[in-house]
């Protein structure tokens, strides 16, 4: 009778291995890992892909794969993102076709509207994904248009200066010119009307007609 060999202890593939940086505490390392984009994405992927890939997917290997995809995108290689968008658009189109077919087989209006509404939502998402793919593949160029001031005659155009600001500037210039002259303006004193045309007023009184002509 032979003795069965001992099986190696199963490793925990969902364990997160962390290396502390110099001067870093364990609490700080855990906090940094909690906000790590690759770790958050890996946890979500692992939760949703269990029925496809099984429970044996290594969490650290998944994080490393996400880091590699991120490094490619940073370097300008967007082939992975293009493939992802194409796959999503195709999958959404398949969902649309399936739901539209189920809607066509319904005999009750509420069920028909429910399936058809979901089908059209999947179709809209597929179209939006294709649009995002086109924008990624062929980025739109920014267009800058300069302002052109065209007039058939003399015209004053004030770009960036309001009419009120222009009037205020002119008033300030007039006050500066007056302050540099020999006569200073005193806005507190009330001016007395001057009677410089006394002789004219007297003549007008002497030759005034006694009666109005009809």
Mean pLDDT: 77
Largest sheet: none
- Indicate the radius of gyration in whole angstroms: 43 Å
As residue ranges, the low-confidence spans are none
Q: How much of the residues is beta strand, in percent?
A: under 5%
Order of helices and strands: HHHHHHHH
Q: What is the overall silhouette?
A: flat
Helix content: 55-70%
Summing up helix and strand content along with how strands pair, one would put the structural category as: mainly alpha
Distance between the amino and carboxyl termini: 155 Å
Q: What is the β-strand count?
A: 0
Instruction: List the total number of helices.
Output: 8
Task: Give the key terms.
214 residues; mainly alpha; 8 helices; 57% helix; 0% strand
Note down, in words, how this protein is organized.
- This protein is mainly alpha-helical.
- Among the domains are: 23-77, no CATH class; 78-140.
- Helix content is 57%, strand content 0%.
- It is built from eight helices and no strands.
- Helix 5 (79-104) packs antiparallel against helix 6.
- The longest helix has 29 residues, at 109-137.
């Amino acid at each position: 009778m032979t003795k069965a060999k001992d099986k190696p202890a199963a490793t925990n593939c969902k364990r997160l291995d962390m290396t502390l940086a110099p001067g870093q505490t364990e609490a700080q390392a855990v906090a940094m890992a909690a906000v790590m984009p690759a770790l958050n994405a890996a946890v979500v992927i692992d939760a949703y892909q269990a029925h496809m890939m099984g429970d044996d997917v290594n969490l650290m290997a998944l994080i490393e794969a996400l880091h590699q995809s991120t490094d490619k995108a940073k370097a300008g290689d967007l082939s992975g993102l293009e493939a992802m968008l194409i796959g999503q658009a195709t999958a959404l189109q398949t969902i649309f076709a399936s739901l539209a077919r189920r809607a066509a087989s319904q005999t009750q209006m509420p069920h028909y509207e429910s399936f058809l509404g979901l089908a059209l939502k999947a179709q809209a998402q597929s179209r939006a994904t294709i649009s995002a793919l086109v924008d990624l593949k062929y980025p739109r160029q920014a267009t800058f248009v300069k302002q052109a001031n065209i007039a058939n005659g003399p015209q004053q155009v004030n770009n960036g200066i309001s009419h009120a600001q222009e009037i205020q500037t002119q008033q300030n210039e007039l006050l500066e010119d007056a302050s540099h002259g020999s006569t200073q303006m005193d806005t507190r004193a009330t001016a007395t009307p001057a009677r410089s045309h006394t002789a004219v007023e007297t003549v007008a009184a002497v030759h005034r007609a006694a009666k109005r002509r009809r």
